[in-house]
Structures are given as C-alpha cells and as structure tokens.
Amino acid sequence: MFELLKTDNRTAARLGRLTTAHGVVETPVFMPVGTQATVKALDPRELEEMGTQIILGNTYHLYIRPGLDILEAAGGLHRFMNWSKPILTDSGGYQVFSLAKIRKVHAHGVEFRSHVDGARLFLGPKEAMAIQRVLGSDIAMVFDECPAYDAPPREQRLAVERTLRWARECREQPRAEGQQVFGIVQGGTSAELREHCARELVAMDFDGYAIGGVSVGEPEPEMFRAVEMTVPFLPPEKPRYAMGLGTPAQIVELVARGVDMFDCVLPTRVARNGTAFTRRGAFPLKGGAYKADFRPIEEGCECFACRHFTRAYLRHLLNVNEILGLRMVSVHNTHLYLKLMADIRAAIRAGAFEDFRREFVAGYVPSRRVLSARAAAALER
Questions:
Q1: pLDDT at position 133 over 70
Q2: Pairing state of beta strands 240-242 and 261-264?
Q3: Which of 5, 206, 220, 330 is the most exposed place for a label (fewest CB within 10 A)?
Q4: Catalytic residue among 205, 260, 263, 293
Q5: CA distance 180 to 136
C-alpha cells in the first residue's frame, strides 16, 4: 500500500507512493481539511484543478451533523460530497477532548455532550470505527486521547495507555472495503512515553502511523521535538502523518524530519480573515497599503486568483464582505500549499531538497497573525 521511492541523502526527507481504494497519493502530501464534508469556500472542481490528491474529513463533526443515517443513505462520504479521490477521516478523539462541553471517560470510550446542542453522546473505538466504516474513507484513524501538551505527567501516561488500549480495539473492528487504518502516537513532550507508544503501536501493525498531540498550542520548538522523538520508532516502510500541521516553513522542516503527510486548516482559516500566504510569509490583504496595488497576490503564482485578480480588487471585496474575496484568497492559499508540496517532491527526486529547505526557510517570515491563528485553528479541526 505504501512504496518508499527515495530517501534524501542529507536529511530524513522521503519520496513515496501511497495506494488507496480511490487512487494513488504521491508523498509528501498536504491534505486540505474538509471537516464538515467540504473544504471551506472551495468546490471539488477547484480542488482537483489545484492538484489536490486527498482531503480530510472528521468523524465527530459528521456524526453530529448531518448524522450517520444521512451519510449511510447517501452511500458514504465520497458520494455525499461528490469527491472521487481519496479521503482520510480523523476519528473524532481530538474533538471529544477539545470541544465537548462535558465529558466522562470510560474504559471503552467517552460519554460527552455535543458542543452544538448539548445532546448526550458516546464515542469510543467501536463507535469511531463503525462511523468511519459507513463514511467509507480510504484511511481511518484510530480513536485516541489527546491531552493538553502541558498536562501533568500522570495524565499524559494515562492518555497513552488509553490510546493503546483503544488502538487494539480499533484494530479488531470491521472495515469498509479497502479501508486502511492508521495508529496515532501520543505522549506529549515525554521522550519515554513517545517511544513506548510508538513501539506498542508498531507491534500492532497498522497501515500507517500518525504523530498526535502536536499543534495543540505548544511552542514551535516543542512541536519539532515531539516529532523528532517519535519518527525514529516508526517503520520506514509505512507512511507517517503529522496531524494538524502547519505553516509552510513548518511543513518543509517536518518533511526534513521524515514526515510524509500533513493537514491543516490554516490556508482557508486565515483566508476568511483576509490573510494571504506567500512563499516569503503571509500578509493582511485587507490593509490600506494594497488599496491601489494592482499586482497579483504573489508574482509568478499560477492560481486562478493570481491569474485573474489584483490585490486592490481582492482587498475591495474583502472590505465590503463580498464572498468572492474570501473564496479567491482561499483558492490562492490552498494552491500555495499544494504547489509547495509538488516542489518539495521535485526537490527530493532531484537530490536537491536540503538546498530547497535552506533557501525556503531562510526566506520565510511567519506573521504574528498566522501564528495566533495556528493556536486558534485547533478548534476548527
């Protein structure tokens, strides 16, 4: 299911090919986030034109709305949202622990109240896998516990033990035809817990492995460290997925650390606030400095927005609350992420990734607006 094509000779960057029931995914890959069965402000045609290979959906949110009965009647998530390419679904564990108004942890799952209407619900390994089986996603994630990154050591250890117990239960559940299942490594900032969790999950022989408990409000150095503590214990012949990450420069750095798959709400989330990504950083397009700026968002960009509209026009749309403005910035930001991944793959293939990495990271300046949005983005996953 996963073929490792090449490993960079100066970093841990990898070029791979992941085969799924709905098509082949070239890695490293970025997965636009379609939490509610849509990538916000974008339609499937636009996503395909930008080169999207795989998108992400979410068990928790889709379980609450529109509900399992509707999704089952529709014939699964692909048919419901008219998307023919691969889909990965998050299990909902993160949302249960971050969004639920009230929750009570039991041996086989979590009883909680919906963040939407307060309804009493239960989600555990069996339920999460049953929902993902109905969704028919190509890759299903195990149900895990994701504590706060600064949770006390005892809480982190208990979360790892629950995650491992629930992973074993998920492993035993029926799957949709052709559905792969990935384990999720937790452990916070503890090297010991990360190693323990990774080794135990690898022994269960999942189809791939995710690094969880990152991009949950921790400082960037801690995020890099969590990945570095985990990757050495993951098998090279299986795909590696860093959940909920990150800015363009963070993705480049994590590819260098051996990560293959990424997802993040940032491209569309900050677009709705008028922030545009470029390969040099991000800037607030609604600002007065762009009132008479008739350049594209980024010179040389081939996205639809940059080929057809100017900064001045898009700024105008954003400031008068016209939907086209946020849609076009969402198109540009998502295109940038996807083009970045294509460039990363080309650099690895050519044996020039370390030069690409050094040049890109040196030239990228993260804005405070994006860094603050990253902290808030967890609520949207």
A1: yes
A2: parallel
A3: 5
A4: 263
A5: 10
**What does DSSP say about strands 14-20 and 139-141: parallel, antiparallel, or unpaired?**
unpaired
What confidence tens digit (pLDDT) does each residue in 158-208 have?
A: 999 999 999 999 999 999 999 999 999 999 999 999 999 999 999 999 999
- H-type helices in the chain, by residue range? 44-49, 59-64, 68-74, 77-81, 93-98, 125-135, 153-172, 191-204, 220-230, 248-256, 266-271, 304-308, 311-319, 323-350, 353-363, 368-377
pLDDT at residue 371, rounded to an integer: 65
Tell me which amino acid residue 342 is. Answer: A
Report the distance separating Cα 52 and Cα 87, nearest Å.
Answer: 11
Task: Say whether 90 is catalytic.
Answer: yes
**Residue pLDDT, tens place only, 204-261:** 999 999 999 998 888 999 999 999 999 999 999 999 999 999 999 999 999 999 999 9
CB atoms under 10 Å from CB of 189, counted, come to 18
- Of 8, 90, 144, 260, the catalytic one is 90
Residue corresponding to tokens 């419901």:
80
> If phi over 0 gives left and psi between -120 and 50 gives alpha, with beta otherwise, what is residue 256?
alpha
Confirm whether 263 is a catalytic residue. yes
Torsion 78-174-185-241 (CA) sign = negative
